[in-house]
Amino acid sequence: MVARYDLATDPVLKQQLLTVRRGTSFWHRKVQEIHDDHLDEPTRLQGWTRRHLIAHVGYNARAIQRLVSWANTGVKTPMYASPEDRAREIKLGATMPARALRHLDHHAAVSLNVEWRDTPPEAWAAVVRTAQGREVPLSETVWMRTREVWLHAIDLVNGARFSDIPAEVLQRLLEDITTAWRARKTDPGFTIEVTDRPGLDPIGAGVENDSRVTIRGDLAAVVAWASGRDASRLVLGQDVPAPRWL
To answer: What is the pLDDT of residue 3?
Structure first.
């Protein structure tokens, strides 16, 4: 059998594809560790069981695949017909038998990977539209999926930790989160100090505003807090919940 390789030639993009594949493997490993009898247990996401989360991640792969198809064919193909359609899809997916749910999750990820692999270099710059209406180059879909698989592995509550996530993914997550706060004008005005990344200067609105509240911890702990998951490992003298991110 002839080996198949990515058609992408950009070295940065190729590294990003490697990272998302590592994240996908990690996600699948955490899913497979869950016994069928425990799929109805809650996740970190309010109102969602593990079934809902697995269905969401599976359907997310299909939705991103539609954007890849858009870029490769020129035929406008939105991620979802509507927010309501997306919600119905996840709700229905959560009712699937365990074997079918696992098949959805695995098969959708494989199909997306094949689409990425066969995308020619010039198509990665094609502009597509996310479910939130943002117009982005196709290459952004790799990060969109990277964020999904690494973070939702944590949300499964099956032993995954933020320290399992690669540092480059954690740093970009922190940039995404603080950028979203600034755009929405919800930045709490804190100074955020990452103790294990000497090259990363303090960030947040508090840097300029002489904040009296400093969020301090290693990169994994800071992202766990900023993403709204866990503040237990931060060095804090008071309860300072992070603003909503997504």
So the answer is: 46
Instruction: Give strand pairing partners of 194.
Output: 217
Question: What is d(CA 164, CA 172) in angstroms, rounded to the nearest whole number?
Answer: 15
Long-range CB contacts (< 8 A, 24+ apart) of 73-79?
78/129, 78/131, 79/129, 79/130, 79/131
Contact 16, 146 (CB under 8 A): yes
pLDDT surpassing 80 at residue 1: no
Pick one of 3.30.70.270, 3.40.50.300, 1.20.81.30, 1.20.120.450 as the CATH number of 11-160. 1.20.120.450
pLDDT tens-digit series, residues 90-119: 999 999 999 999 999 999 999 999 999 999
Using one digit for the tens of pLDDT, what is the confidence trace for 182-217? 899 998 888 899 999 888 888 887 777 776 788 899
Count the neighbouring beta carbons within 10 Å of the beta carbon of residue 4: 9
Domain boundaries, the chain: 11-160, 167-226
Amino acid at 5: Y
Residue type, 142: V
Q: Cα dist. 81→87, 89, 94, 126, 141 in Å? A: 11, 11, 19, 21, 18
